[in-house]
Design goal:
The chain is mainly alpha-helical. The protein folds into 2 domains: 118 residues, no CATH class; 164 residues, MetI-like fold, CATH 1.10.3720. It is 76% helix and 0% strand. Helix 5 packs antiparallel against helix 6, helix 11 packs antiparallel against helix 13 and helix 12 runs antiparallel to helix 13. The longest helix is centred in the middle third of the chain and has 36 residues. It starts with a helix and ends in a 7-residue tail after the last helix.
Amino acid sequence: MIEYVGRRLVMSVITLLGVSVIVFSLVQLLPGDAARTMAGFEASEEEVAQSRVRLGLDQPVVAQYGLFLGRLVRGDLGTSSRTRVAVTQEIGARLPKTLQLAAVASVTGSAAGILLGAVAARRRGRVTDHVISIVSVLGISMPVYWSGLLLIILFAVVLGWLPAGGADHPASIVLPALTLAIVSIALVARMTRASMLEVLQQDYIRTAHAKGVPVRSVVYRHALRNAFLPVLTVVGLQFGSLLGGAVLVESVFGWPGMGRLLVDSIFSRDLPVVHGTILIYALMVIIVNLIVDLLYGWLDPRIQLT
């Protein structure tokens, strides 16, 4: 196990290095002048030139990446060109909100998806199964920003039950978390249904039925437990997708997380914050994937971690 974790950590560092190269290259293609943004649009050319030197933009692209990588190794993500605050402080203030939103959406999506998938598998071919399948397809097909707008219209404007945005009230997290969870519910439900239908055809399930074990016990205690491993993969991958979807959802609901910070930084050409935010996103996805792999070995000792 220790050897496996060590190899995965090395691969994680290589992955982060690759992400840093891609992000740095793409950010260079953004329109606008970061030095002009930092100096101010009314600044003189001399002040803009000083800002360019301060940001290292007067050097070749390779040298700029070398400086960026050197700071990254030291844990320094630079300083925001928009707020003059350290990027680590900017991200540190927003990260808890994003993690809170992703965690609530992930738990909600996983629990509801597993329950709906198990019900659909148990009632295969019936009306309940068809309804859940249709709803799952709609949930997968609908963009998160459109789902969010529909939920705002229904629960905030028409019914007036929940806040339409912000994070000032404990109930403010309900709509953005539900918006993120919709796609997760649909995917997990479909995977749970497919995995359980396969397990329900196994010999030990038929033996349990022959022994008179109650159907509910067979489905939810035996079949669901053995069908959970493929579902775990989807749950782990969905956490990364939830982080990506949070960029749009946080913008729609005005949620003060990293996604909104990333969008604001892109529009203002705040390159250090863009670099740092995307790297933190990549790091969180890598950590979640590692945890999922380790859970595989813990849940099923027959799986060899290689």
